[in-house]
Amino acid sequence: MRVKDETKQLAIVENTLCVVSEKGFAGVKMADLAKRVGLSVSTLYVYYKNKEDLIMSIAVDLIERESQRSEQEIVEALPFKLKLKTVWLFWVNFSINHRKEMSFLEQLKKSPYYGKLPNSVKERKSKLSTALIDQGKKEGLLKNVDNDILMAILIAVMGETVKLIIHDKMELSQNNMDLMFSMVWDAIKS
Amino acid sequence: MRVKDETKQLAIVENTLCVVSEKGFAGVKMADLAKRVGLSVSTLYVYYKNKEDLIMSIAVDLIERESQRSEQEIVEALPFKLKLKTVWLFWVNFSINHRKEMSFLEQLKKSPYYGKLPNSVKERKSKLSTALIDQGKKEGLLKNVDNDILMAILIAVMGETVKLIIHDKMELSQNNMDLMFSMVWDAIKS
Amino acid sequence: MRVKDETKQLAIVENTLCVVSEKGFAGVKMADLAKRVGLSVSTLYVYYKNKEDLIMSIAVDLIERESQRSEQEIVEALPFKLKLKTVWLFWVNFSINHRKEMSFLEQLKKSPYYGKLPNSVKERKSKLSTALIDQGKKEGLLKNVDNDILMAILIAVMGETVKLIIHDKMELSQNNMDLMFSMVWDAIKS
Amino acid sequence: MRVKDETKQLAIVENTLCVVSEKGFAGVKMADLAKRVGLSVSTLYVYYKNKEDLIMSIAVDLIERESQRSEQEIVEALPFKLKLKTVWLFWVNFSINHRKEMSFLEQLKKSPYYGKLPNSVKERKSKLSTALIDQGKKEGLLKNVDNDILMAILIAVMGETVKLIIHDKMELSQNNMDLMFSMVWDAIKS
DNA sequence: TATGAATGAGCGTTCATTCAT
DNA sequence: GATGAATGAACGCTCATTCAT
What is the distance in angstroms measured between the alpha-carbon CA of A117 and the sugar C1' of E21? Predict the structure, then answer.
């Protein structure tokens, strides 16, 4: 299954992302979705076995692509602080440019769907980042506290930064980004 | 005249909070809720005009109680850093002890219900905190950046702190709390 | 039962009439009605055993009062055509001034409630009128056709006359009334 | 692809007509209707978007067919009185043979549904008849009064005629029909 | 008598999913 | 493979009526 029309396939994903980010998973109605992409409901069920399959497939795809990106983003040669900043800023930018995907992922984590994801997929995500943080600690640049805590801070502030920009409470300027990163850095640096 | 069972009223709220924090607003089914509190569906509609009324009533209650608490929690006499720390820790503790309420409020903000809240209720919330931050800036203790940004950092880290504790990734010890606050403080101090 | 507050009693009837004429019997909601007249629902059930009783009581009342009026309205001394015209015009006027009652009665006839009226009440209505028509036939002034037919014509045109006036398609002037009656008269006169 | 059972469609309309003429629009219960025609409730909603759509669709259909019939029924060549009689009798007959449809239409006019009909549908109905009446007035055969009044008389007597026959108070014989029409004619002729 | 509390039986509607061609 | 037809299981809500004080 899931072979035929690639265009439709993409349209389904795109539309699902759209609706989920606006109205949540419950807002996705199979009939609606089918109409939007110009398919009959029953044909939609040829592409995806059911609603769960639809959402899980998209989720797995998204997460896998995200992991790949993390790996590519790290430029080994840079000094630690700059390396971290680069990655951090990359994700801020990425989150803003892929709001829908991020929103989908965010909602996924709180939904019952998340629990059904294969562990292999769930684990894959954070590996990279912990390696990075370990390096910082080894170099004596980061506070010697649990990785989870440092990660939490990094991600929390990143999330708020994105929100501030999306909600037009802050401009996406070099200055502001420098400021925001300096604040996280101050928080986690030893 | 039959007499109203005050217990039921509380049970309704309690159960709603429970379900919302576990499955979101959509997870609240009037029939289900009625059964949980030992009432018939129609009686539930005697207490609340409809589902929206149920949720909004609880929301307004929660927010008002939250505002009151904020006001009470501030001990004017303390030096700024300590004052902020006290408040911040109070909310960390409170959030942990009232997970369901907090989860409800968190979801409320992203739901269409939030937009329907009377402005008077919405506005009341933030006043206190901005006053506190203003003081910190006036005393030259906080970075001279937008209040929204400082608030965002404070709240973001608070949220993550709570999550770490709830998910058993960190103990709720004096040491850990000192650590966490020191991290936020480092981030926002001038 | 049904003894206490005469004012409430009247208010109930008045409100029921109002609602029925606007939205039909189904539009009468016991709870609504109670609120309108400043009674609790349960007290409304002290006045009337149930919704059917409420409607039937009003119906019987209305019909009985209507019959009485018919009797009073006939001035024996007049010549037949004038006598008929007087009665006919009386009813046109009455129908206009008591739209709600008439509407109630009209709807009653098509409703399942009508079948439940005691025959004694149903029969009483037309007696008078048939006597009048019989007289007209005896005097050779009316077509010698079945009373039902003559009655039907009289009533049908009366109904349309009322409608024309109520819907502002005709003025309630002496001329117009003369015209309308002359039309019925032409139809039924021998 | 399963093929649509055209019978069902008709059965829905037929049953709706039946129920409406017996118990009014409120008497139509979607679940009941579905059962009558051997469909599940949800399938009924495949045929019609909702209850209003069901009723409005039938209404529009009926009115349009009625208008068409009016147009066809007029035989231009006949002298006026005969032409009018033909049409009048046609509608008497039609009303008797299509009681349910007529009852539906009658109730429609008093229901809130009527106000929601597109004007194009509402207007179409009366054009023909007014043309006919105008002719009668031009030829000096009808009383020179407002068309609304003449129409009202024609329709009112028609309605009563139908009722008399349906309620078995009069036979549908040539004689009786001649009589009834002569009565209307006497009423409206100049 | 008066009334707030409580309820069962229903109703219109939605939606993910399956059937049959 | 594609699709229109069909459906069961819910869900939110209403309302006449009864209960219990």
Answer: 37
The CATH homologous superfamily for domain C1-49 is Homeodomain-like (1.10.10.60)
Query: Which residues in chain D touch residue C189, judged by CB atoms under 8 angstroms apart?
Result: 186
| Nucleotide closest to B29 measured between CA and C1' | F11
Which residues are CB-neighbours of D153 under 8 A, at least 6 positions away? Answer: C157, C160, C183, D184, D187, D188
Hey, do C1-49 and C67-188 end up sharing a CATH topology, with the first three levels equal? no
Other Cβ atoms within 10 Å of D108 Cβ, number: 20
User: In the 8-state DSSP scheme, what is residue C189?
Assistant: B
Q: CA at D1, C1' at F5: how many angstroms apart?
A: 7
* D4 Cβ within 7 A of any nucleic strand F atom: yes
Please name the fold of domain B1-47.
Arc Repressor Mutant, subunit A (1.10.10)
List all chains that touch chain D, counting a touch as 3 or more CB pairs closer than 8 Å.
C
Measure D42 CA to E16 C1' (Å): 12
Strands (E), chain D: none
pLDDT, tens digit (0-9, with 9 covering 90-100), for A72-95: 666 778 899 999 999 899 889 989
Residues with Cβ within 8 Å of A57's Cβ and at least 6 positions away in sequence, in order, are A48
CATH 1.10.357.10 fits D63-188, yes or no: yes
User: Alpha carbon D25 to chain centroid distance?
Assistant: 16
Across the interface, of B146, B157, B186, the residue whose CB is closest to A156 is B157
Could you please state the CATH topology (level 3) that the domain comprising C67-188 is classified under: Tetracycline Repressor; domain 2 (1.10.357)
Chain A contact set for B164 (CB, 8 A): 148-149, 152
Residue C164, number of CB atoms within 10 A of its CB: 20
pLDDT given for residue C67 in this prediction: 76
CA–CA min distance A170, chain B (Å): 8
Residues 6 or more apart in contact with residue A13 via CB below 8 angstroms? A58, A61
190 residues of chain D, pLDDT tens digit each: 677 777 888 999 999 999 999 999 999 999 999 999 999 999 999 999 999 999 999 999 998 888 888 777 777 788 999 999 999 999 999 999 999 999 999 999 989 999 898 888 777 666 667 888 999 999 999 999 999 899 999 999 999 999 999 999 999 999 999 999 999 999 999 8
* pLDDT tens string C47-92: 999 999 999 999 998 888 887 776 666 777 889 999 999 989 988 9
What is the number of other CB atoms lying within 10 angstroms of the CB of residue A185? 19
* C119, two tokens: 């025959």
In tens, the pLDDT along A135-173 reads 999 999 999 999 989 999 999 999 999 999 999 999 999
> CATH for A74-188, among 1.20.120.1200, 3.40.640.10, 3.10.129.10, 1.10.357.10?
1.10.357.10
CB within 7 A of strand F (chain D, 47-66): 47
Q: Number of CB pairs < 8 Å for C and D?
A: 69
- Give A155's contacts (C-beta < 8 A, 6+ positions apart): B160
